[in-house]
Design a protein that fits this description.
The complex is a heterodimer of chains A (432) and B (304).
Chain A: H1 8-32, E1 33-39, E2 42-47, H2 49-75, H3 83-93, H4 95-108, H5 117-142, H6 151-168, H7 172-194, H8 199-219, H9 221-224, E3 230-231, H10 254-257, H11 265-289, H12 293-303, H13 305-310, H14 315-341, E4 343-344, H15 351-364, H16 369-381, H17 387-407
Helix pairs in contact in A: 1-2, 5-11, 5-14, 5-15, 5-16, 6-7, 6-8, 6-14, 7-14, 11-14, 12-14, 15-16, 15-17
Chain B: H1 2-32, H2 39-60, H3 65-92, H4 101-122, E1 127-128, E2 136-142, E3 145-150, H5 151-173, H6 175-185, H7 187-192, H8 197-223, E4 225-226, H9 230-245, H10 250-271, H11 276-290
Antiparallel strand pairs in B: 1-4, 2-3
Chain lengths: 432, 304
């Protein structure tokens, strides 16, 4: 756009006016004119010119203030980093303390005085997304492979468990390792041919794969129940003690065994701890594998593939391992999702779900474990604050993804520097 | 034979529409090397603008169909082009020169944003459109099966041909087209030689969006319904078309579009309607794996 001329005010005003004009034109056909059904397959038009006016005013004010602030900021010497970066830096310095407090809170959540069944359920949902985010972080954050079809592995895990339980009578704990294995095999089957592709092609192919899985689940009715999905998926047991009011013949229920009064909350709390444990395993695994040669290779590959090839790293194998491991954790999460809901259908595994998980990883800062937690909490709890939030959730998601890429391409808590440095940085070598 | 001919006509119609959208992908990829993931949403915007414009014209009482159609086409192209311009300006330009993935993620964000923007402002329900262009001819008849070519199908194919011809002329003859080809070859060198690269890229987005808008208007008329979700699938299919034809190549985009349209029509005609989208995704994966440069594209060399 036009460079601000010598007169500071006129330039700013003109720039803001142009922006407001464009915004007005953009808003006119969508915000200003709303078509609606008037019955009989015909459409009428409602006008909302007041909203267009508000949009124009908001854009004018916003653009003006933004340019003004930038001008003022530029005149001052850049003494300190921008506030967000400072917060992130503070978080990185205090990472250990924050982790402990967060972990303590997560462990204590079901027994805090203000906890309710609703809160624990919400916590469980957040943790599912944290786990998915951590799983995808291996692929996107560490290995730098943009996967737009991660939900496929989540779906594979969920359907594997549901089918094993229905057809072969597996329980959750028996099926869990298998779901990870099956999901990882799917990762390898997909990854083997396509991982040679460049980053953005890979993204589109994974998207296609995700859709293929969904279409097959939707249409292969004999196996997957089609759009009706699979219901009556068995619940997990506590060392083969079921959570039930009346235990089936010959077994004791959890409440009976411990001499407690039966309460449906037991299962909710148990599920919460199961997913917490699964998520922590994912995290621990990621943190450890980063220090192994394969983890180092992932990060090196993300930074410079050609250099890696020159150093004798086989990119396909290294990428494949990241893909398979990411898929495995997606499969675990899927199995948990199935056992928690008791019902799955292809509707839970749309592209939007993939985009949400990706948004969590991206917003948190690719490669940052803490960022994933933060972003998952933000994205999952936002709609709970009210209808308005729920309606605008995805809109804000999209806008936030754009804004974060534009302003902080590394994410909120960017931590993309490789785990290993050549420079003599005494603390950096072991940091994560 | 008759059935085959009918599927051929349907496929060519569909393929024309995909081809129009695919041009936007292929041009942007050719010049700045990014996948404009939000392009499918631009097409959806075009479809929605056309619905609004049709309803407005109906209320004002513009009855001659060709006149109404021309006005709607122009309005849709104008507003959609503005959207295309704004998307580039907001979401892609600040990211030029950063890593390959950043613009792609930004584009996904833009796509999610636009989809929900349309849903919130226009409602989530299907928008029905009464058929505007009616009539058709029986091309061929055998064994009680008449092959129909509707006026609308003819219009879609002819319009696509005209637009393609005009577009190719612009690229081959005009100053802007020359600048675009220069940028495609070497963007840094082009800027050193005095080409305003920002303007060329903006123009590319505007042109791509205008063509997508035409596709949006045509789809609105062809199917008679529009909703906020049509951009995703059409976008993926058009992208597949662009990849199949060879991304970066204009005739490739058109050829790819027609092929995808034909494959889809024949697949749903002879195999199964349920799995017709699967065929497109499968083709996408197969092409990318076995012939990433497409039918008419040049292989890309990765340099340090």
């Amino acid at each position: 756009m036009a460079v601000p001329p010598a007169g500071p005010w006129s330039g700013l005003v003109r720039d803001a006016l142009v922006a407001a004009l464009v915004a007005g034109l953009l808003a006119l056909p969508f915000v200003g004119l709303e078509t609606y059904d008037i019955g009989g397959g015909a459409l009428g038009i409602r006008t909302h010119f007041d909203r267009v006016a508000i949009a124009i005013a908001a854009v004018f004010a916003g653009r003006f203030l933004y340019r003004l602030l930038r001008q003022l900021y530029r005149e001052r010497p850049p003494s300190a980093a921008p506030p967000l970066a400072r917060i992130a830096a503070w978080g990185n310095r205090r990472a250990a303390a924050i982790t402990l407090v967060g972990l303590g809170f997560a462990l204590a959540l079901p027994f805090l005085p203000m906890s309710s069944r609703y809160l624990i359920d919400l916590g469980t949902t957040v943790l599912i997304y944290v786990m998915l985010g951590w799983g995808l972080n291996i692929v996107v954050g560490l290995a730098g492979l943009l996967d737009l079809g991660y939900v496929a592995f989540y779906a594979v895990g969920a359907y594997t468990f549901a089918l094993l339980a229905h057809n072969l009578g597996f329980t959750f704990w028996e099926a869990l390792p298998l779901t990870g294995l099956v999901a990882a095999s799917f990762g390898i089957i997909l990854g083997f041919p396509v991982l040679r592709l460049r980053g953005d092609y890979l993204a589109i192919v994974t998207l296609g794969f995700g859709e293929i899985i969904r279409i097959v689940l939707l249409n292969w009715s004999a196996m997957t129940g089609g759009p009706n999905g699979i219901s009556e998926i068995p619940r997990p047991t506590f060392f083969s003690l079921p959570f039930a009011r009346n235990a089936p013949e010959g077994t004791t229920s959890f409440a009976q065994f411990f001499g407690l009064d039966f309460s449906p909350d037991h299962r909710v709390i148990f599920l919460y701890y199961v997913i917490l444990a699964l998520a922590l395993v994912t995290n621990w695994f990621t943190l450890r594998i980063r220090r192994l040669p394969v983890g180092r290779a992932w990060e090196a590959l993300r930074e410079d593939e050609i250099a890696c090839r020159a150093l004798g790293i086989n990119p396909t194998n290294v990428k494949l391992s990241a893909f398979a491991i990411g898929a495995m954790f997606g499969g675990f999460a899927g199995a948990f999702f199935a056992t928690r809901q008791g019902f799955i259908s292809p509707e839970s595994f749309t592209f939007m779900e993939s985009a949400t998980i990706l948004a969590i990883v991206v917003l948190g800062g690719m490669g940052s474990q803490m960022g994933v937690v933060l972003a998952a909490i933000l994205l999952v709890t936002a709609p709970e604050f009210g209808r308005a939030f729920a309606e605008f959730r995805m809109l804000v998601f999209g806008a936030a993804m754009v804004a974060i890429m534009v302003w902080r391409p590394g994410g909120l808590l960017a931590r993309r520097e490789p785990s290993l440095h050549l420079e003599p940085r005494p603390t950096a070598a072991q940091s994560r | 034979m008759a059935y085959f001919l009918q599927q051929l006509i349907n496929g060519l119609t569909l393929g024309s529409i995909y081809g129009l959208i695919a041009i936007g992908y292929t041009m942007v990829y050719g010049i700045i090397g990014m996948i404009n993931f939000a392009h499918g949403e631009i097409y959806m915007i075009g479809a929605f603008v056309s619905v609004t414009a049709f309803v407005l014209l109906g209320l004002i009482g513009v009855s001659p169909v060709p006149l109404a159609l021309a006005i709607v086409l122009l309005t849709a192209m104008l507003f959609t082009a503005l959207y295309g311009w704004a998307v580039e300006r907001i979401a892609y330009r600040p990211l030029r020169g950063s890593s390959r993935l950043a613009p792609l993620i930004s584009a996904i964000g833009m796509s999610i944003f636009l989809q929900n923007y349309a849903q919130i402002t226009q409602g989530a329900r299907l928008k029905p459109m009464p058929p505007l262009v009616e009539g058709g001819f029986t091309v061929f008849e055998s064994g009680g099966f008449a092959v129909r070519l509707s006026v609308l199908q003819l219009l879609i194919m002819v319009l696509t041909l005209v637009l393609m011809a005009g577009f190719t002329t612009v690229i081959a003859r005009s100053r802007l087209g020359r600048a675009q080809r220069a940028c495609e070859q070497d963007i840094v060198m082009a800027s050193l030689l005095g080409i305003d690269v920002d303007r060329v890229i903006s123009a590319t987005f505007v042109m791509g969006a205008a063509l997508a808008a035409v596709a949006g208007v045509m789809v609105t008329l062809y199917y008679g319904v529009v909703d906020f979700f049509i951009g995703f699938l059409a976008g993926v299919k058009a992208f597949t078309a662009a990849v199949l034809g060879g991304i970066g190549s204009l005739p490739g985009a058109m050829l790819g579009g027609l092929l995808i349209g034909l494959i889809e029509a024949f697949w749903s005609g002879y195999f199964s309607v349920e799995y017709k989208d699967l065929s497109v995704f499968a083709i996408l994966i197969l092409v990318l794996v076995f012939r990433p440069s497409g039918l008419l594209g040049r292989p890309e060399v990765e340099k340090v």
